[in-house]
Batch of 4 targets.
Target 1
Amino acid sequence: MDFWTTIGIKWKQWIFYPAKIEDPMVDRYAGVREHEGMHCAQFAKYGLLLMGIAYTIFPLPFLWSGRWWIERGPYLNDIRNGRRSVESAADVLWKYYGYPYSKAKMIKWFNDNLDAKSISREGAKDESD
Ligand SMILES: [Zn+2]
């Protein structure tokens, strides 16, 4: 596995990280830990069944998408923290999450939900996770 992911039940969650990473607790991974931590909170709130149903509902780019619903909050947080630009978040979601929602609508949602005082998008760095 070469990506971070989270699975859980209401009372316990597990974050998995790529085998090549020696120490997932170093500062370099603080942002991705925060992202996965948001998924832990989702598992704690909604439980495995609802999260599993949401995640496995296949790409419905113009209707409700479980993957988009799960990922939009953590990716918005990544954008706010400077880990990604709006465009790169939409690109990653489009490319690695099975076209979860219309790209234009993802970009619009991120822009609509960013604070006016948010991070400079030009300065956002891009790390793969
Ligand atoms: Zn995520």
Target 2
Amino acid sequence: MTDTRVAVLVGSLRADSLNRRIAENLRDNAPEGVTLEIVEGLGDLPFYNEDLDGETVPEAASLVRKTVAEADRVLAVTPEYNATMPAVLNNAIDWLSRPYGAGAVVGKPFAVIGATPTPYGGKWAHEHTQKSATIAGAQVVEHIVVSQSAMEGDILADEAVVAKFADAVQALVDAEPTA
Ligand SMILES: Cc1cc2nc3c(=O)[nH]c(=O)nc-3n(C[C@H](O)[C@H](O)[C@H](O)COP(=O)(O)O)c2cc1C
């Protein structure tokens, strides 16, 4: 049997991004039968513009669409900027939502996790990502969401927190596409 492939959209471009490190930790410790692929190049995507989205599309958009189209599931791992998702993630979802009705996320089980150094852990960003991905056509699994506070210490050294993230991945893998 082939592995279940999970495309991972990281909402931070920062070199030392905590959310990227969460994604890398999950990728490096993926359960047997599961492959997580961090979708690179989100920072190379131009701002979504319908004029650019014709018979040909920018190479960065084509690569991101291909990686997600080839996956079985999609996981967003994101911080929160100004009470919503970072623009880089919003822009990626816009590219992945078109062509209308046939975007790369359509029908794919989709979950959201992430951490921020506040008591709320980015919950508004996560709610907004769920809403946006739903409208984009993904099959958002509402209950798979982890908004982790990272106020002090290294949350990736906390086994209970790491287990929470890993459980979210497992639940996403177990979610059957309904379409
Ligand atoms: C422009 C900007 C806006 C931010 N707004 C929020 C916010 O609304 N809520 C929040 O929890 N954290 C906010 N933060 C803090 C980020 O969550 C924090 O920098 C986080 O570590 C970024 O994630 P990363 O480590 O993956 O890059 C903001 C940070 C920036 C740079």
Target 3
Amino acid sequence: MQLLSAINLAHDFEYPLFTDINLSLNVHESMAIIGASGSGKSTLLHILSSLLEPKEGRVELFDENIYDLKKDALVHMRRNDIGMVFQSHYLFKGFSAYENLEVAAKLSNTKIEEEVLEGLGIKEIIHQKVTELSGGQQQRVSIARVLTKKPRLIFADEPTGNLDSETAFDVMKLFTHYIKENDAAMVLVTHEKSLAMQCDHVYKLVDMKLEKVK
Ligand SMILES: Nc1ncnc2c1ncn2[C@@H]1O[C@H](COP(=O)(O)OP(=O)(O)OP(=O)(O)O)[C@@H](O)[C@H]1O
Ligand SMILES: [Mg+2]
């Protein structure tokens, strides 16, 4: 079952960023996008996840052309089926880590899973205030918050950027486990090739094109 497909995407800001981007992702699959800083990885991820409209081409999520959807249907899809882990995380600062997860669970009518907290190594710090946590702990709480929503498609932008290599590896293992268990799929943007290579498909954004690496 195909969850994501991108057809002939092109985008530019002041100058052209990329053209002729075609890709697709099936259930239970993970895909990594690597490339130099400024090559447009985050921009591409925003387009794939419906946050930004491309200058050319189209994105289909769950077999729907997202630009044909009514506004309500798109909001519903974003809230229930899409999980975004941003390059800079946006936790509610006045709350504890746990309260941040509770908000996600309430909004999506799901529950917080011990397995996720354990897999991310945040069980011990879950009742601390967000402002008392290290950057890497905050990053893992924001991943837990996204997984608590139970999305079918995860878009993650440098989700392990603040983590040591061992913790990053554990986070990747958790993502892989999650997509198999929940009939989901993931698109990951990362600078780290060793993490990227753990995904089923790897692409590199270079010279305005997407090159297949794996
Ligand atoms: N909203 C915007 N308006 C104008 N230019 C933008 C906008 N967003 C990104 N850009 C430009 O597009 C280019 C690609 O940015 P993008 O954030 O996609 O790169 P990236 O590959 O994710 O880089 P990094 O690895 O540093 O995160 C950059 O030159 C950036 O300045
Ligand atoms: Mg980026």
Target 4
Amino acid sequence: MPPSPLRPSSSLRRPFPQRPFSRTRPPGRRRRRSAPVLLLGLAWTVPAGIGAQIQGVGDLPEPGQRTVLITGSTGGLGREVARSLAADGVHVIIHGRNEERARELLEEIRATHAGSGRYYLADFASLEQVRVLGEAVLRDYDRLDGLVNNAGIARLGTQDRVLSENGHELHFQVNYLAGYLLTDLLLPLLREGAPSRIVNVASRTQAPIDLDDLMLEAAYSVRQAYGGSKLAQIMHAFELAEVLRGTGVTANALHPSGVMDTDMILEAGLQPQSSVLTGRNAVLRLLDDPDIGSGGYFHVFEPARAHEQAYDPEVRSRLMAVSATLTGAAPVPSPASPSRTRPTPSR
Ligand SMILES: NC(=O)c1ccc[n+]([C@@H]2O[C@H](COP(=O)([O-])OP(=O)(O)OC[C@H]3O[C@@H](n4cnc5c(N)ncnc54)[C@H](OP(=O)(O)O)[C@@H]3O)[C@@H](O)[C@H]2O)c1
């Protein structure tokens, strides 16, 4: 099938609501509550240079309160992970594009859970928004105990190739590149919070990556686009684990559960085959289990073997290098010795 003509992502035409009234913490002062959640949303279309406008809404953690950022926590799996963590007293950093859903979750946390929350809106189809999200979190927090790279899309209903604002294939950017950049930006907070954890929510649907056609210009299919982005997330976790060895920051990837009852599945008209609560528990385990290690790939609860390409250090290294170039992030250093080339543990 010939590649579709390049065209912008439809998501870029959506209004991007932000909250100019929410304040950030003044230097040196930490407070439990920031501006109350205003129920009337102020929305405007995202202009170029949106970045400076991304601000958190909600509370900030108490000193020493465990703090976890979950991308894509306005719905589906991410929302369930955030709910559970908040019920356990954790401060959760909620992220998504949909302000109504973010606000509802924040209100639920305030009303019913022991923890606290704060939300940020950023569309991962824009690397500028990812970058400024990272900068906003760096401004508001001094440490992180966990980062769950969960936000994702699967454009299951269509074989149209869609590009991000940055001209990258949309699955590759939203599912992988955005998390690559955000992780890079937030590493100082994760190092400060060590022992801390990075969890990349991948999938058992994996497809080998053609490094010479990362954006699938030559041959596009939604399975290749989604599966390639998910394998890239796994390689990213493997590389992070190597690079962060000895720092107290660990990185793992997982397939959370198959065909869960989330929007991604329901909107594609698929019949769910598992509960989002199974996926939630699998993610929570990677955040909580003291014996989980680093550099692993898990099929729900079990250590598993990812697609063979993930174990090729040359491919991983090239992927990290090109990701750094595409995002403007610092490159994840390539492994320097043979002992650093093989992630652990795998079946
Ligand atoms: N569902 C499954 O069976 C399954 C199986 C294996 C792996 N997974 C993985 O699990 C993760 C969560 O999936 P899910 O099933 O929970 O999906 P979901 O219900 O569709 O939720 C996706 C989340 O990602 C956010 N998101 C989507 N596009 C975004 C963008 N351009 N910028 C920023 N945020 C964006 C959404 O925010 P908005 O509210 O703003 O839309 C939402 O919070 C994904 O990485 C997926 O690949 C799912």
